[in-house]
Amino acid sequence: MKINLTLKIRRQSSPDEKGQFRTYPSGPISTDISFLEMLDILNERLTREGEEPVAFDHDCREGICGTCGAVVNGIPHGPAKKTTLCQLHMRHFREGDTLVIEPFRARAFKLEKDLVVDRSAFDRIIREGGYVSVNTGSAPEANTIPVPQNIAEQAMNGAECIGCGACVAACPNASAMLFVGAKISQLALLPQGGPERSRRALAMVRKMDELGFGNCGNERECEAACPKGISIRNIARMNREFLRAAICSDEE
Amino acid sequence: MRNGVIMHWLAATLKSSIGRKSVMAGSGLLLAIFLFAHLAGNAMAFFGRATFDAYAARLHATGPLIPVFETALALVVLIHIYFGLGLFFENLAARPSRYEVVANSGGQTFASMTMPYTGLLILVFIFHHLAGFYLADSSTVSDLVRQNLSRPVTAAYYIFSLLALTLHTSHGFWSMTQTLGLSHPKYDLLIERLALAASIVIGTVFILIPVLVLFRPGFLS
Ligand code: HEM
Ligand code: SF4
Ligand code: FES
Fold it and tell me: Chain B contacts of A206, Cβ < 8 Å?
């Protein structure tokens, strides 16, 4: 089946320029293709017509890398639950729909061009403590360190975060706490993350604050928009980890 | 660690996002405890004029304890407001440009998105409420309440403000537990329901007083 849509896309050619919305007819679009393929088709046409194609981020196009993402009709990654933009199929839209497509907006995510924003703030947070220190050498025997199944499961739930930034985009306060909560949780739950547990919680939260993200109001928009269904339980765990580290540990 | 500043880690914590959110939650909890004490006092009114006035007399007989509690309470309110407004403005600054289309991804509720505004409504109400008692001619509590609330406009304003308080706490009580890290698969639902129940109980019992004064002419006389 083919549908025709009106695409209202926010264009901005450089970080310092003023952006504006441009409206494009989509032309007939197969409902079997993905959202990004729909943008590809638009871009081919724009190129033929001599207009600058719409810049957007993408890499794996299979929902695992976290590179893609835009806000579609007010919802990051579009209307389908637990779906990245690259995995969003056009069958979720109806003939004649108007799609307003705009970039993620947060002070900490600087706009580069069109739908591309700089999410390196996430990398800077990870650098503060999103790692474990291990001795190099020959690989240890599997299962040397026992981890109960349910703990491994919870750590895995946090590790599912692909760092796409939709939580920040969805949060009314542009808070990064779901992302940071997931990243702190995934390591805090496992024995391998134990030695750096307190330092990690303090350092990652402080970096997050410094980068200009907002503060969680427990509005739950992040978990509703997250393509990986990361639960706000991870935010509660981060709060616990941070308070424990600040008050009880000897880390400064 | 001896570096010249006593507990400088505490200052750092109180500057952090989670530290300030915890102060919001902690001060919110203290206010909630006060509200329940206040509620128990108000409930004396349901047992009639004599009981209510006797309760008020006993309260005032505690002497110096009252100003101590009042000061502490005012301090808690100030802290709650100071940190609340600080977070509010910081959150506004964290998203300098608005979205063209503002939509709800499915998490926000009316209560959660109006926290700063219901908070301010409560603040204005607190001033009005205190003025109604401190600036009144001395008479018994029952008479004061009847005088103040028998004016329909005042009663309506009380009910409106108490609905704002109910809205504020309907999100706030649960939010407070999440902020303090109380989250557990076995207890989450219980916590959520208890928090909502607490806010509904507070709202209902407080609102009952203006409603009774308005619609039951014999109440407290
Ligand atoms: C008796 C009255 C009040 C009670 C019981 C109360 C209780 C609470 C609670 C429990 C929270 C949740 C804290 C958290 O999320 O961890 C909260 C949040 C909040 N309160 Fe109040 N509050 C009261 C009065 C006020 C007043 C007078 C203001 C004044 C402006 C106010 C402003 C706020 C704001 C802005 C928040 C949201 C903070 C955030 O999530 O960033 N509240 N309140
Ligand atoms: S928590 Fe979810 S929305 Fe946020 S960065 Fe990770 S995957 Fe994306
Ligand atoms: S492009 Fe990799 S998740 Fe969408």
Answer: 12, 16
Closest chain A residue to B181 measured between Cα atoms? A236
Quick check: B158 and B210 in contact, CB under 8 A?
Answer: yes
pLDDT at position A45 is 97
Same domain, A124 and A244: yes
Q: How many Å lie between the alpha carbon of B106 and the closest alpha carbon of chain A?
A: 6
Q: Is B14 on the interface with A (CB under 8 A)?
A: no
Domains located in chain B, CATH noted: 17-215 (1.20.1300.10)
Alpha-carbon gap, residue A102 to A225, rounded angstroms: 15
Distance from CA of B124 to the nearest CA of A (A): 22
Report the number of distinct structural domains present in chain A: 2
Q: What is the mean pLDDT of residues B102-123?
A: 94
The whole domain housing A96 covers 2-102
Q: What are A166-225's pLDDT values in tens digits? A: 999 999 999 999 999 999 999 999 999 999 999 999 999 999 999 999 999 999 999 999
Contacts of B185 in chain A (CB under 8 A): 233
Pocket of ligand 2 contains residue A235 by CB under 6 Å: no
What are the residue ranges in chain A where pLDDT is below 70?
A: none
What letter represents residue B103's amino acid?
A: A
Residue B147 pLDDT > 90? no
Note whether B6 contacts A: Cβ–Cβ < 8 A: no
Q: Is the pTM of this model over 0.90?
A: yes
From A72, A102, A132, the end of a domain falls on A102
Which pLDDT score, from 0 to 100, does residue B138 have?
66
Q: Are residues A98 and A179 in the same domain?
A: no
Residues with Cβ within 8 Å of residue A243, at least 6 apart in sequence: B18, B22, B180, B181
- Residue A129 and residue A92 share a domain: no
Going by C-beta distance under 8 Å and a sequence separation of 6 or more, which residues neighbour residue A123? none
Q: H-helix or E-strand containing B212?
A: helix B188-215
- Residue B63 is predicted with a pLDDT of 82
